[in-house]
Amino acid sequence: MIVLAFDTALAACTAGVWHDGVILACQSVNTPQGHAEALMPMIERMMTSAGLIYGDLDRIAVTVGPGSFTGLRVGIATARGLAMASQKPAIGVTTTEVLAAAVPLYEYGDAEGGERRILSVVDSKRDDVFAQVFTADGLAASEILNLGYDALAGTFTGNLIVVGDAAQRAVISLGQNAEASSASALCAVEHIAFIASARPIDPRGPLPIYVRSPDVTLQPGGGALR
Question: What is the pTM of this model?
Answer without folding.
Answer: 0.91
